[in-house]
Amino acid sequence: MLAETKLDTMSAIYQRRAVRSYTAKKIGKETIEKLLDAAVHAPTAVHREPWAFVIIQNKDRLRQYSDLAKSLLLGQQEATSFFRAAEPKALAMLSDPNFNIFYDAGTLVVIGCKSRGPFVEADCWLAAENLMLAATAEGLGTCCIGFAVNILNAPEVKRELGIPEGGAAVAPIIIGVPRGPIPSGTRKAPEILSWVA
User: Fold this and answer.
1) What is the CATH number of domain 18-59+100-176?
2) Which of 61, 114, 140, 158 has its CA 20 to 30 A from that of 188?
3) pTM of the predicted model over 0.70
4) Hey, CA dihedral for 25, 27, 31, 34, is it positive or negative?
5) Cα–Cα distance between 142 and 110 in angstroms, integer?
6) Using the 8-state DSSP alphabet, how is residue 17 labeled?
């Protein structure tokens, strides 16, 4: 288990960053269960608690899904047009055979649902934020991997992972021990469209 890190809520929020470089240290079952427990304490519409989880710690499987995801994204005209215009570096990364969309992290937690419905995806994303903040408080790094969503929702991959046909992978999050210090980041000030008092 990692050394106990004590962060208050605001510190965890301000210290959480997308981490894209990890050590080889494996995250233990007890730690993952602690993060999942934090995740399920997220707000949930009409107390449905629709989330379900898949944990993958097999590096060969993660590499296989990475290669499949890159191939799928590069084959989609809409995706490649978006990356070419908005984020050319992403297109170069996806074209690199050595690039792993999971950044060689040893753990992927997929937050998903067994069936769809109103507010289900929002609930899953709220659980994802709880998980990421809890990981930050534990001294771990996380990164949400949007590149993985399409491949994790491919019918054959859903079957492999036990995600029901009517369900979906919503928020794939890698977790690991950061390799080196995590640089601080900045955000734009909140854009307030209106303030009705």
Assistant:
1) 3.40.109.10
2) 140
3) yes
4) positive
5) 12
6) -
